[in-house]
Amino acid sequence: MDMAPYRAHRRILTASLVGTAVEFYDFYIYGTAAALVFGPLFFPSESESAQLMLSFMSFGLAFFARPVGAVVFGHFGDRIGRKSTLVASLMLMGGSTLLIAFLPTYAMAGWIAPLLLCILRFGQGFGLGGEWGGAALLAVEYAPPGWRGRFGMFPQLGAPVGFIAANGLFLLLGLWLGDDDFADWGWRIPFLVSAVLVGLGLWVRLKIRETPAFAEAMEKEPPVGVPMGELLRSHALTTLAGTFAVVACFAIFYLATSFALAHGTTALGYPKEEFLLIQLGAILFLALGIVVAGYWSDGASAQRVLGWGCAATVLIGFVFGPSLASGAWGIVALGLSASLFVMGLVYGPLGVWLPGLFPVRVRYTGASVAFNVGGIIGGAGAPIAAQWLSDQGGTSFVGLYLGVAGFLSLLGLLLVRKRVVAA
């Protein structure tokens, strides 16, 4: 029995998983640092709430860089191929993350410090803008018939893997270091460690070949001159639908991670290490939800799984805030776990559903733009809006954001409910 195809599939799935895990590790360590230390270090203010708000604004900056990266990397991914574009996106993301470790604080350099932080944060988002779409295409365009959902879930699993690595390292640092040492220099260590992880991701990705779907498409006709132009001319409604469908997963994730950590350890007074441990346990339910969604998508359809997940997002909005503010660790853990499991149901199928909306010739651009613009709507404003809602009516009001996000994603699914998914 020839094992070569199976070995090739293992390499492809490993490359899609490892690459996104490294990328999301880089992205999450910023989110964790923004919640814990970046406010006083880079945005000093008399108001603790203002420090946190400014820190989250720098966090949200990357979401606006991601669509720019999606257009640029999508352009080259649809014209010259998936592999080389993925390598370039990983190098940009990793380089920006590593340089954050060497930044001076506001006390050292004044306004130059937050400016440099925001520039590197933009670089992180720019790189990630080209990462997810290429990783999803790498997996799905290699998938055997009937396995697209399960292959498409592998790049999605990079999210919980990267989160566990990021928050696990922050948890260890919190246990080893005192608060002063952590704020002084300890927060830089996760950004330094990213260099090792990026090197691992590059090593894996340089060993893969171009996807069969892209190679076959290039044999039949030349690449599109300007993929973004073709996308706007012929696939505008589909792109809009895909954008709306993405909103729910971003809203859940950044409320259950960055906002919950910041709000829980400040306004609600939970100990930092214990809360990080709770989040590490809850993130396993995100991985479980992704796996369930992958198998369910192959058994039914990605569209159906997304529909159920978006409806559940609306319901989760009613319990997220009260569970977070309950003061009981068991209820907090249950609320976060349920929220992240539901996120798995809306995030897991996106790896196959979004690429399936677009033909091969504009697939990298279409999937990347929809995913990252949806990230702005669902994720960039999530911690900021949640902080504002909490200031207005208490933590119980925060779930309103999830309800709106769930309805927007359901609207996106309705816009393409009769569309035949592209091969």
From TrEMBL:
Main location: membrane
Any Pfam family hit: Sugar_tr
Entries under InterPro entries matching the protein: MFS_dom, MFS_sugar_transport-like, MFS_trans_sf
GO molecular function, one term: transmembrane transporter activity
Gene Ontology CC, one term: plasma membrane
Membrane topology per record: Multi-pass membrane protein
Spans through the membrane: 12-38, 50-73, 85-103, 157-177, 189-206, 236-256, 276-296, 305-325, 331-354, 366-386, 398-416
Major facilitator superfamily (MFS) profile domain sequence ranges: 12-421
Subcellular location(s) of the protein: Cell membrane
Sorted UniProt keywords: Cell membrane, Membrane, Transmembrane, Transmembrane helix, Transport
PANTHER family: INNER MEMBRANE METABOLITE TRANSPORT PROTEIN YHJE (PTHR43045:SF2), SHIKIMATE TRANSPORTER (PTHR43045)
UniProt protein name: Predicted arabinose efflux permease, MFS family
Lineage of producing organism: Bacteria, Pseudomonadati, Pseudomonadota, Alphaproteobacteria, Sphingomonadales
